[in-house]
Design brief:
The chain is an alpha/beta fold. The chain has twelve helices and nine strands. The radius of gyration is 19 Å and the shape is globular. Bound molecules: manganese (II) ion.
Length: about 300
């Protein structure tokens, strides 16, 4: 494999988690939760109300591990609607027919995509779900939208579905599911890497619907919703995964398969590695228009006439 070369080719970037949160232990972090925090049992009870609501799916009894029942989860708001369309088009071109749940963060996006919904493509309005603590604040920042995904993941896992979370600003070049299913017995979660190797990027994240993973997601929600310190979804997850109390088996997906945007869109990296890539992620490219321009330049913007 090209892993060594890929790592060497990685552009110099600022360390994404130099702060103390990366080495802090979970009990210490949880001890710092605000007084108005709620217990993990109360949080579980609150979130389980979502299973009865409009997000409900028939509960699946897992009878074996293969093939698992999984849902691809993604979220969008009106700023990312065209990027969402491009992502859907990339799946259509792969001729994969997987169940997708799209969480719409505003009414406009909901009515735009709900017209196309069917049994394989569910479109849900995010305000239909109960979101705890800080996650319930209705602020339309990107980070807030990203943090709320933890609640959607939890709800799907509790319904017996594995979840594949995919950022909307991705383009699927090859179907990634066979990579996961070929070693399904050996891991609990599969996740792309952030700017540091073995630093999780919950932009592409497969989770098994098993108790220790559900518990991890519950802790993740608790930290994001109630911790005194404000974490990004990424830093909170990194902290949890480094905690000795969390015992999930993690497979970090190689950069040669799931590169950073700063790798894929770097000309020399692209020349050497583009052929091995499964998922292109348009991160670190600025806001919508810059992403679209870069996708277009690399022939992965599919929405232009004749593309
Ligand atoms: Mn992204």
């Amino acid at each position: 494999m090209h892993v060594k070369k890929v790592l060497q080719a990685r552009p110099e970037v600022k360390r994404s988690c130099p702060g103390p949160e990366c080495s802090v232990n979970l009990p210490i972090a949880l001890a710092k939760l605000k007084q108005n925090s709620i217990s993990i049992n109360a949080l579980r009870k609150m979130l389980d109300q979502n299973i009865e609501g409009s997000f409900a799916l028939p509960v699946v009894k897992r009878t074996g591990l293969t093939p698992p029942t999984f849902v691809i989860l993604t979220t969008t708001n009106s700023n990312f609607a065209s990027i969402m369309d491009n992502w859907l088009e990339s799946l259509r071109r792969l001729r994969v027919r997987y169940n997708i749940t799209l969480m719409s963060e505003d009414n406009e996006t909901f009515s735009y995509f709900a017209r196309r919904s069917n049994s394989e493509f569910r479109v849900i309005l995010s305000s239909d779900l109960i979101t705890p603590g800080r996650l319930g604040r209705n602020i339309p920042t990107y980070q807030q939208i990203i943090r709320k995904r933890t609640v959607y993941i939890y709800t799907l896992l509790r319904n017996g579905r594995d979840v594949l979370l995919s950022d909307v600003d991705t383009v699927w070049i090859k179907d990634p599911l066979p990579l996961i299913f070929k070693n399904y017995q050996h891991f609990d979660i599969w996740i792309a890497q952030g700017r540091e190797p073995n630093f999780p990027c919950p932009c592409f994240f497969y989770l098994k619907s098993i108790p220790r993973v559900i518990e991890l997601v519950l802790r993740w929600i608790q930290v994001l919703a109630y911790s005194e310190k404000v974490y990004t979804d990424q830093n909170a997850l990194a902290m949890l995964l480094r905690s000795p109390e969390v015992k999930v088996k993690v497979d970090y997906l190689g950069y040669e398969l799931f590169p950073l945007g700063s790798q894929y869109f770097n000309d020399s990296w692209h020349t050497d590695h583009a052929s091995t890539v499964y998922i292109v992620h348009g991160n670190h490219l600025g806001r919508g228009e810059e992403k679209i321009a870069m996708f277009r330049k690399h022939g992965i913007w599919y929405l232009d006439r004749g593309q």
